[in-house]
Specification:
Blueprint: H1 3-7, E1 14-17, E2 23-28, H2 34-42, H3 46-50, H4 59-71, E3 74-81, E4 84-92, E5 108-115, H5 124-135, E6 143-149, H6 153-161, E7 165-175, E8 181-190
Parallel strand pairs: 5-6
Antiparallel strand pairs: 1-2, 2-3, 3-4, 4-5, 6-8, 7-8
Bound molecules: coenzyme A (COA).
């Protein structure tokens, strides 16, 4: 893990305010938040659960996520409001890039984001994504990517506002929990 990543710890907790004035706080996700994260992921609506890249409602997946945070391959900010987690945004980088730095996509960090249905349209997604974009250089990446299904339009809006541009559509690239295929859209942004 680089020292610049360690330096991020001083940035949190960070206060934020939603469009309607509701206070929120951003913190870096750690093992202390494991149970709250599981409570959050299990409260996500069906449409979101249908298209999860990984089953983050499973304790094993959340543990693997926390392990990536420990190695520095992933950095996640969680948003707390009204005393619970209401969203998160992660930056995922190449696994083990600290020890095997020659991988050809080592300059890319992928953003993944989720906001609870009750908090969408509040500005929360935009704030979280902007926060991750701001800290991304400290994680050693120079290009950001985001992947979403064609119908995740809120995500497209949030990333376009941050300066992301459309890159590609991969047909039938995503298969949901029920076995139905959907197209995957890739957006990116140079830092
Ligand atoms: C993407 C997501 C994080 C955005 O969170 P959010 O808190 O709603 O974000 P914001 O409030 O900052 O902005 C969303 C904007 O998209 C707009 N939007 C939402 N759905 C839309 C649609 N179908 N068509 C057009 N605009 C849409 C909202 O109106 C809002 O615009 P506004 O600021 O003018 O009101 C949230 O929708 C979410 O968790 N979605 C499910 C997970 C997902 O799609 N993740 C992306 C994969 S990385």
């Amino acid at each position: 893990m680089t020292s610049s990543l360690h330096n991020l710890s001083g940035r949190y907790p960070k206060e934020a305010e939603l469009r309607d004035g509701t206070p929120a706080v951003f913190v870096a996700f750690t093992a202390d938040d494991r149970e709250d994260m599981l409570e959050f992921t299990r409260s996500l609506d069906e449409e979101v659960l249908l298209f999860l890249r990984e089953d983050i409602t499973s304790p094993a997946t959340v543990d693997a996520w926390l392990a990536e945070i420990t190695t520095g391959d992933t950095f996640t900010i969680i948003a707390r409001a009204e005393d619970k987690i209401v969203g998160y945004c992660s930056l995922h980088t190449e696994p083990a890039r600290w020890t095997r730095p020659a991988r050809w996509t080592r300059h890319i960090g992928e953003i993944r984001i989720n906001v609870h249905a009750d908090f969408r349209g509040t500005g929360m997604g935009g704030l979280l994504a902007a926060e991750i974009r701001q800290v991304a250089p400290a994680l050693g990446v120079t290009k950001l990517s985001a992947q979403m299904t064609v119908d995740q339009e809120g995500a497209r809006v949030v990333f376009e506002r941050l300066g992301f541009r459309y890159q590609a559509t991969l047909e039938g690239w995503v298969i949901d929990r029920e076995g139905n295929e959907r197209d995957l859209v890739i957006m990116s942004c140079d830092l």
